Amino acid sequence: MKKILLAVFVMAFAACSPSTKITRSWTSPDKSYAGYDNIFIAVVIGDITKRQVLEDDIHDKLLKLGIESTPSNRVIPPNFWNSTDLTKNEMIQAIRKDNKDAVMTVSLVDVQNEQRYIPGNMMMGGPMMMGPGAWGMGANFGGFWGWNHPMMMTPGHIVNDRKYFIEINVYDTASELLIWSAQSRTLNPRSMEKFSSEFSEIVLLRMLEEGVLKTS
Questions:
Q1: Does 108 share its domain with 139?
Q2: Which of 27, 94, 180, 196 sits a CA distance of 20 to 30 A from 44?
Q3: Domains held by the chain: number
Q4: How would you write the pLDDT of the chain (216 residues) with one tens digit per residue?
Q5: Does one domain contain both 55 and 89?
Q6: Long-range contacts made by residues 204-211, C-beta under 8 angstroms, separation at least 24?
Q7: Is residue 214 assigned to a domain?
Q8: Does 111 share its domain with 124?
């Protein structure tokens, strides 16, 4: 059943052109050979609303793959991650409460703003090259120029790009070792909802491909 769900998951993702891409990933030789199927999800960012949206999206997509998970926002107070009194033991206790076999953390590591120049378009031609139907627009010079000039001389312009770099780490709960790590890059996300859905899909797909998630 999980293999069928995996195939559907892959086909659905392949049908789109994502703005999020995995730029690198690493898998530890100490990773469980079978993969993990009970995961604690912790998005470590300051914005509580965005944290919940992303954690819940990852949780929902894992559920469709038949993998159990718990978002941190369901068991940990909102100010937990920012607490200066947070200790390692408290963290481990919170995660092991539901017998999780892995911890997945997501954190924003960098935001870059870049400008790029988009050249204008130059189109050569007149009424003859545009076909007989264009003669009505170019019967006099004023009509010809008004019809063709915008297409012949489209000016260039500057586009502002914003790139978000996010790090994803997965730890084995028993050994507390890092067993998988990846970094993603997202270009100009349209909305938090669209980014969250796309990000969770591309990350989970890579985790499936590299044996981090249990598929059978």
A1: no
A2: 27
A3: 2
A4: 455 445 544 554 444 566 899 999 999 999 988 999 999 999 988 888 999 999 999 999 999 999 999 998 888 777 666 665 556 676 677 777 778 899 999 999 988 888 777 776 655 444 434 444 444 444 454 554 454 545 555 667 787 788 999 999 999 998 989 999 999 999 988 899 999 999 999 999 999 999 999 987
A5: yes
A6: 204/9, 204/58, 204/61, 204/62, 204/65, 205/9, 205/10, 205/13, 206/22, 206/25, 206/182, 207/170, 207/180, 208/6, 208/9, 208/65, 210/25, 210/27, 210/180, 211/27, 211/31, 211/33, 211/35
A7: no
A8: no
Cα first-last separation, the chain: 8
pTM for the predicted model, two decimal places: 0.73
Q: Is residue 191 part of a domain?
A: yes
